[in-house]
Amino acid sequence: MTWTNLARNGRILVVDDAMENIQILHHALRAEHEVLFALDGEQALQIAREQQPDLILLDAVMPGMDGYAVVAALRAAPRLQDIPVIFVTALSQPEDETRALEAGAVDFISKPFNVAVVRARVRSQLTIKRQADAMRELSMTDGLTGVANRRNFNDTVDAEWRRCARAGLPLSLIMIDIDHFKLYNDHYGHQAGDACLQRISATMKRCASRPQDMLARYGGEEFILLLPQEGADGAEVVANRILDEVHKLALPHAASPTAPIVTISMGLATARPPLEGNTPGPLIRNADGNLYRAKQTGRDRYCISLD
Ligand SMILES: Nc1nc2c(ncn2[C@@H]2O[C@H](COP(=O)(O)OP(=O)(O)OP(=O)(O)O)[C@@H](O)[C@H]2O)c(=O)[nH]1
Questions:
Q1: CATH code of the domain made up of 150-304
Q2: Per-residue pLDDT of the chain (307 residues; tens, 9 = 90+)
Q3: Domain ranges across the chain
Q4: Which of 196, 230, 232 is nearest to 214 (CA)?
């Protein structure tokens, strides 16, 4: 995305109890953005939840839930708290502006507004928002393979563990390690080793494609697959699929004592998270222990706990 594109094609939610103001802002922004609108605070929050706008233009004074209450509700909701809010209001005293910024707004525009100024401010806030999104995405992604990094996995497994506990559903993990990868690097060189990691991770990612599934790079040549809402049977289906697909990939590994192609070993573990007093740590150790058994018993396979 170019710098110019960063400032365009946003999804902007305009919140105002006066239809006339919404129409003016819609007219000002529609050439560059998708414009949604809400006539009160409750409706604004509902649309924000359903449509995830990039930016909200919010009237401070509205009957019922006012703009300050809307910002407070947005900031308290994990999925909405990063949406930037620009206050657009007839209040024009410095203390009004200060109050809006302290409540969590990123900018303040006084009515009657100048349309060119509104456009320019929207562009600049949209650019900042998209840069922040890109930084967040980078900080959660492994640079070599493009899959989630370990920190992202740690945050996600905690959240999914709690979600599965609330829903009374199981959660499975597959710890995955490429066999004899040191010998691969020694034989083909480090760059070929990097390319191998990319091919294997892309193949594994395709094997678990439900929206809640997450493949993460856990260490050098070690990956972990998080399968929320999946029991042991489902995890075995995925593990078998991964074994098959990695075989089909048939990347030559002339130095491997296991097979003439690159193979992987896996450890599976499944739990039903309890509502209280437990974390995913023991489950991760369990998967790791099973991976160790897969290595010990010949590699190119998976092991699963029998309990
Ligand atoms: N090319 C490349 N190699 C890496 C990367 N990260 C880790 N490695 C290598 O992965 C190898 C892992 O070696 P070991 O832990 O001894 O395991 P292994 O050779 O795969 O043997 P087993 O796991 O027992 O089958 C080391 O040689 C690391 O240098 C990376 O990003 N790129």
A1: 3.30.70.270
A2: 565 677 888 999 999 999 999 999 999 999 999 999 999 999 999 999 999 999 999 999 899 999 999 999 999 998 899 999 999 988 878 888 888 889 889 998 988 888 899 999 999 999 999 999 899 999 999 999 999 999 999 999 999 999 999 999 999 999 999 999 999 999 999 999 999 999 999 999 999 989 999 999 999 999 999 999 999 999 999 999 999 999 999 999 999 999 999 999 999 999 999 888 788 999 999 999 999 999 999 999 999 985 5
A3: 3-138, 150-304
A4: 230
Q: Which residue's alpha carbon is nearest to atom 32 within ligand 1?
A: 194
Rounded to the nearest whole angstrom, what is the distance from the C-alpha of residue 179 to the centroid of ligand 1? 8
Let me know: does 176 contact 223? Beta carbons within 8 Å: yes
Would residue 137 show up in a list of annotated catalytic residues for this protein? no
Residue given tokens 């009237």 in the structure block: 59
CATH topology of domain 3-138: Rossmann fold (3.40.50)
Which residues lie closer than 8 Å to 96 by C-beta, 6 or more apart? Answer: 60, 89, 108
The one catalytic residue in 34, 221, 230, 245 is: 221
Buried b vs exposed e over 213-250: b needs ≥16 C-beta within 10 Å? bbbbbbeebbbbbbbbbbebebbbebbeebbeebeeee
Ligand 1 pocket member 115 (CB < 6 A): no
Say if ligand 1 is within 6 A of residue 300 CB.
no
